[in-house]
Amino acid sequence: MLVSSLLAPASDNLVGGLQGTDVHRSLSHLQWGLNLVTQSQPKPPRVKAYLLSTGGRELPVLQDTGLVMQGLHRVRNLDPANVYTRTGKIVDYTFDGFFDPTDIREGGLLALTISGHGKRVCGDDVSLQLQTQDGTPVNSSMLQRKIMALPSHCTLEVIVDTCFAEDLIPGLRRILTTESPGPPTFPTANDMSRSIATSTLPAGTIARSKYKAKVVVWAASTKWGSAYPEADLPGKPGVYSTMIGVFSNERNISRQHIWESVLKAVEEQNDARSKRDLNKSPEDRAKLVKANRIQRPILLTSVEDSVRP
Fold this sequence. Notes:
By secondary structure, this protein is α/β, with parallel strands linked by helices. The protein folds into 2 domains: 3-40, no CATH class; 47-301, Rossmann fold (3-Layer(aba) Sandwich). Helices cover 32% and strands 18% of the residues. The protein has 9 helices and 11 strands. Helix 3 runs parallel beside helix 7 (242-249) and helix 7 (242-249) runs antiparallel to helix 8. It starts with a helix and ends in an 8-residue tail after the last strand.
């Protein structure tokens, strides 16, 4: 029954008409019902996590998934009900739910891990081997639209362990890279702007962010680079994606410590790959050198340099 009908004047000729006390009682019951609905609404989660892992026979999809799930057990305030894992090539409604701008608490964290093949499609667009149930590809453009809808009161932290990882999420700026000539600075959740302002990257390399939310991306490769599985080194199973292996086994959540661990692991893998390549024929070696098989991880963010005019 509409509220306006409850406020209609009492009349002996009105079938089912309500007297004044009945109106007051009905409105009180209505208000109580509204309060009950409001009180019973669950609060949005503090932390949500989503893992997308897909690839061919040579990619360790299930192993990567197991490693990530192992690492997520150590994330504070993460309810298992807010962890989503998809290892096929189709993503469903849960992917939209993960990016729901109304479903994350103020100061909350969204953790997205992507493992698999990345490929160049059109211009700077990078596409994954994934699509929605209606056939929409999961690519740079799609992710950009979803991230732009996120509110300013949350942080999205992404691990992209694919080729061309730097360009999967557009509109970010480099903070750390093995190509940077200056000393590294490390953003924190509480003071990202200040630390980014001390970055030594050249002027003119900073793109204006399109995102309201703070976005941090750990990219396993540069915009034209490749990401590789681990080599079979002592203590390494030889099947995991290198960056995911580091994150899943790290117990220190300091970004500085994690970055140093990533650099160490990638350097070991680059050296092992180079030694293996030396055993190949001269023709194959020439092709491999041209392909530039040195993996270079990058840390990116959406937060702008506050000292710029």
